Amino acid sequence: MKEMTGLERCRAVLNNDLPDRVPVVPQTFMFAAETAGFRIGDMNKNGKMMADSHIISQDKYGYDGCVIDVDDASLAEACGAKVIFDNPNEPALVDEHNPLVNDLRQFKDMELPDPLKDGRLPAWLEATDRLVSEIGNRVFIMGRSDQGPFDLLCLLRGTQNFMMELITEDPKIIWDALDWCREANLRFAKAQKDAGAHATSIGDSYAGPNLISPDMYRQFAWEHELTLCKQVQDYGIPWSLHICGNTNEILGDMASTGAKILEVDWQVDMKKASDIVAGRAVLMGNIDPSDPLVYGTPEGVDLKAKQIIEATEGKNLFLSSGCAMGRHTPEANMRAMINAAKKYSN
Question: What pTM does this model have?
Answer without folding.
Answer: 0.97
